Amino acid sequence: MSTSTVVHIKNMVKKYGDFPAVEGISLEIAQGECFGILGPNGAGKSTLMKVMYGSSQITSGEVFILGLNVKQHMSEIKSRIGVVPQEDGLDTDLSVIENLLIYGSFYGLDRKVISDRADYLLRLMKMEDRTDRAVETLSGGLKRRLAIARGLINQPDILFLDEPTTGLDPQARRWIWDFFKSLKEQKSTLILTTHYMEEAEFLCDRIAIVDHGKILAIGKPVDMIREHIGYEVVEFDCSAKDLNYYVEKVKAQNFDYQVYHQTIHVFMKEHQSAKEIIQHFLSDRVVIRRPSLNDVFLRFSGAQLRDES
Amino acid sequence: MKGGFQKVWNRNFFYFRKTWLVTAFWTILEPLMYLGAFGYGVGSFINNVDGMAYVDFFFPGLLCTTALLVAYFESTYTNYTKLTHQKLYASWLLTPLGAKDIILGEILWGATKGFIGSLGVLLISMLFGLVKSWMFLPALVVVFVLSFIFACVGMIFTSYAKNYDSFIFSSSGILIPMTLISGTYFPIDTLYIVLKIVAYTFPLAHAVDIVRGLMTGHFKIMFGLQFLYLILLAYVLVRFAISRLEKKLIS
């Protein structure tokens, strides 16, 4: 394990009763990385997160955070990490600033230190004019910003973000993304789960796609797109009865493809040209576009709907 | 975490200081209304009970029921809200605080709040001349232990609760009947033997005996044993409450 490895997971299994939520995951995350965990609902990504920040105990395997074993040193780990949970879990009995002061006290920090940091964080979050507001009166975006400030009160070495922008409007989301970018510039280590591919592409240095409790693919977003999808995607909508005919055509030409419902996605690799395939799809329902992480995600997790976890 | 439970206690005390006025209304004013209605109102029709004025008989019981009801309600409705709707325990567990710190801090706070309620009633009652000797000081120790016991009981019910209505079974089914038969409103000796045994199974009857004895100057050797029973019960219940809640908080 190199000194800059802040998360080291070896063959970790987590079962809830008989149900295996995580089935043997191994993973290393380096200091200063922004690492994203993607996966459909119930894939095991939240469990993986919870194991890392200590809200869930592992069934077997080994997990080291900041070089410390989660089985023996969880309290010390918790004092050195910050977590922004999916449900903000803000203290609705207290005001904005009181939330930070009380939460900071749980880390055993000096009162003056907490108070200075709370003021600083609220300025950073552009919430300095709302310090005495009741938490209940804040918008969703502001609540999330307060939860992020709370996660930073102990100046953590790693910040965990569980679906940090779920349920927020586009402006609030954008604000938070820009804030995370600025954290990244300061070489902070961020580990996040998300449902938003553009979020992962925008923020993450590396991502892991998780499903059925396993890591299906891991790497840099751009490399994953190149490797698993290619350089261009040709999308073609057709009727159910014609689907087979067109799929045969694509197959015959040895193109890499995937069918989602009644749409054929053909993936253009290096040195392949979209022209070669378009001539077979004489239709106005053809779209040629740049591939995205979304394509990679759909490729691994399939396009079927999942129940809410 | 070292001293973790104190940090949890401090958070609650901090909130209490913000809201003490509304809290004082139901924890102190309400019992005082009972003191007026029963102690002085109903009491004016009663010559004496066990050789003392009814209000002197009633007052120690009121101190005990005030403490236990305040502690119980804090440990049930308030803590159930923290556990479920506010999800506060989940976010506190993200800090170095452990589950034990949280549970113990909450129980001690519930006990403290019950104690504060009872103390408030006692201090105001001093103005009416109901506190006649310094023996109210050891009596307050008993009140605190009783308060602690019901903070534990509340936490245990919280661990079983499915929703807020669940608490109606424990409050209307157990707590209120207990406060009626434990020698609070009338002497326990007048009860049928079966009910008497039931009454003495619960901690309140013992606490009322001791507190009344201390406040009216009638000491008995039995008080030592009864107090020991309360301490033992407090110990067993706090252990049980911690193990129940720990299972809820750690997955």
The biggest sheet of chain A amounts to: 6 strands, mixed
Alpha carbon gyration radius of chain B: 18 Å
Tell me the span between the first and last alpha carbons of chain B. 19 Å
Please provide the ordered H/E string of secondary-structure elements of chain B: HHHHHHHHHH
Rg of chain A from C-alpha positions? Answer: 22 Å
Beta-strand content estimate of chain A: 25-35%
Largest sheet, strands/sense/barrel of chain B: none
Number of strands of chain A: 14
Helical percent range of chain A?
25-40%
Order of helices and strands of chain A: EEEHEEHEHHHEHEHEEHEHEEHEH
Task: Give short descriptive properties of this protein.
heterodimer, A: 309 residues, six-stranded mixed β-sheet, four-stranded antiparallel β-sheet, 36% helix, elongated, B: mainly alpha, globular
Structural write-up:
The complex is a heterodimer of chains A (309) and B (251). With 309 residues, chain A is α/β, with parallel strands linked by helices. Chain A has 11 helices and 14 strands. Chain A has helices at 45-53, 74-80, 96-105, 111-124, 140-151, 170-185, 197-203, 221-228, 240-252, 274-278, 293-301; strands at residues 5-16, 19-30, 34-38, 60-65, 68-69, 81-84, 158-162, 189-194, 206-211, 214-219, 232-237, 256-260, 263-268, 286-289. A 6-stranded mixed sheet of chain A has the order 6-7-8-3-9-10, sandwiched between helices. In chain A, strands 2-1-4-5 form a 4-stranded antiparallel sheet, with helices on one face. Chain A has a 4-stranded antiparallel sheet with strand order 12-13-11-14. In chain A, a hairpin with a 2-residue loop joins strand 4 (60-65) and strand 5 (68-69). In chain A, helix 3 packs across helix 4 (111-124) and helix 8 (221-228) packs across helix 11 (293-301). Chain A is elongated and about 70 Å long. Helix content of chain B is 76%, strand content 0%. Chain B has helices at residues 4-18, 20-41, 54-83, 88-92, 99-126, 136-160, 166-181, 193-201, 203-216, 222-249. Chains A and B meet through helix 2 and helix 3 of A and helix 1 and helix 4 of B.
